[in-house]
Amino acid sequence: MTGIDLTGLDVRPAQVWGGVRLVPLVRAEPVAGLRLGREVYEGWGEASVAVGDGTAYTSYIPHGFVADWSGTGEERAAYGTRLGGEGAPPGMAVRRPQRMAKRRRGERRLRFLPLHLALEGYLALHFGGPSVVWDDWSREALRRGLSPRAEAAYAGWSVPGLAEALRIFELHPGQCGLLLYVADALAASFVVPHPEDYRLLHPTLVEDLYGELVHQYAHYGAPVPEFTARIRDGAGGIRTLADLRAAAREQERAWAVAHDGLMARDLLETRYAFERVYRMGSFDLYRFLPPFLRGGREQHIGELITDHKGRTAYLKSFRLSENQIRKGHLLRRLADEDWHLGRTAEALGTSYEEVVRRIRAAGLGSLLDAHVVAQRIRENQEG
Predict the structure, then answer these.
(1) How many CB atoms are located within 10 Å of the residue 169 CB?
(2) Which of 304, 301, 291 is nearest to 101 (CA)?
(3) How far apart are CA 272 and CA 226, in angstroms?
(4) 49-92, pLDDT tens digit by residue?
(5) Three-state secondary structure readout of the chain
(6) In this predicted model, what pLDDT tens digit does every residue of 264-315 receive, in sequence order?
(7) Under a CB-based contact definition with an 8 Å cutoff, are residues 120 and 57 in contact?
(8) For residue 285, with 0-12 CB atoms within 10 Å meaning exposed, 13-18 middle and 19 or more buried, which class applies?
(9) pTM (2 d.p.)
């Protein structure tokens, strides 16, 4: 599997509020055998989750999702759970989940942290740091790698216009998801198996995390045009309600083709690296990373649940900023060249000095041995 398959999900005309565009996704039939519910945590705030190898992931975590493949058709929400661990703020260290995704003992249910599976995967990208003892890297980098590593994100309620757009959003019959745009840039995607699941989980979108680019677009972007359909009276004319209905459906099809081929193209056509996190009967939970290609195309990280045919039952994505894409691209190239700065420069078609500049611009300058790097730059300039 290399791409996202939205087979069975149909696009409906967009709804607009200021600079926010919401594109509904509907299913003719719900995904059989899987339901998605919510686990609500007391006291929003920062919490820490152990991810293995003695490391911890710390973030704003307002709620969890519970995937149920028991076949009972029930959707349930658990209230009153406290999420915490060592290093968490006072009052939150009551119970520490051992994993990002955790099976309910004796049940066919899995609790996982939406979006945080994906974000932890991005933060862990080549987290070990330099694997070879090159002189250019500091002793601290060789001992601790990229730890600690942090990225900025914004809660949905801090994105201007988003809360109001979600409040007035009109749900469609059979709606199981949406694609969310800010200033007509795709900010996030959200898909669930069943319309009742979506109705329950729709309000959680305002609690999700959104990237820096999305936050900036919401502040400085202009209002976007509303969806309009123009039905022209052609040679055959529109004489009956059936003619009008057929013309309206043709407009919906034209909108769907234009949307998938233009607005959502980068999300749907990108080839991702998938990592399976958990198998749930005939369903699989994955997180995915993009190829971190330069060139201006949008790139997303995320997580999804697929059925046995690879079709998407659940999807949640997070759009990376250009800085985050550059950082991922740089880390990949460094790792490909065993963290040798000279070979990395050759692979990138640039100079040693430029690679050092990019490392510092990515916030990783503390990993370098400043004295050795300065000496090599001086030698290169003299030579």
Answers:
(1) 17
(2) 304
(3) 32
(4) 767 666 777 887 888 899 999 876 554 544 444 444 433 333 33
(5) CCCCCCCCEEECCCEEECCEEEEEEEECCCCCCCEEEEEEECCCCEEEEEEECCEEEEEECCEEEEEECCCCCCCCCEEEECCCCCCCCCCCCCCCCCCCEEECCCCCEEEECCCHHHHHHHHCCCCCCCCCCCCCECHHHHHHCCCCCCCCCEEHHHCCCHHHHHHHCCCCCCEEEEEEEECCEEEEEEECCCHHHHHHHHHHHHHCEECHHHHHHHHHCCCCCCCCCCCCCCCCCCCCHHHHHHHHHHHHHHHHHHHHHHHCHHHHHCCCEEEEEEEECCEEEEEEECCCCCCCCCCEEEEEEECCCCCEEEEEEEECCHHHHHHHHHHHHHHHCCCCHHHHHHHHCCCHHHHHHHHHHCCCHHHECHHHHHHHHHHHHHC
(6) 999 999 999 999 999 999 999 999 999 999 888 899 999 999 999 999 999 9
(7) yes
(8) buried
(9) 0.86
The answer to whether the peptide bond before residue 148 is cis (omega within 30 degrees of 0) is yes
How far is Cα 314 from Cα 325, in angstroms, rounded to an integer?
A: 24
Model confidence pLDDT, tens digit, residues 223-239: 888 877 677 766 567 77
Q: For tokens 């705030």, name the residue.
A: 45
Q: In the structure encoding, which two tokens stand for residue 239, read together? A: 């004489």
Q: Are strands 209-210 and 154-155 parallel, antiparallel or unpaired?
A: antiparallel
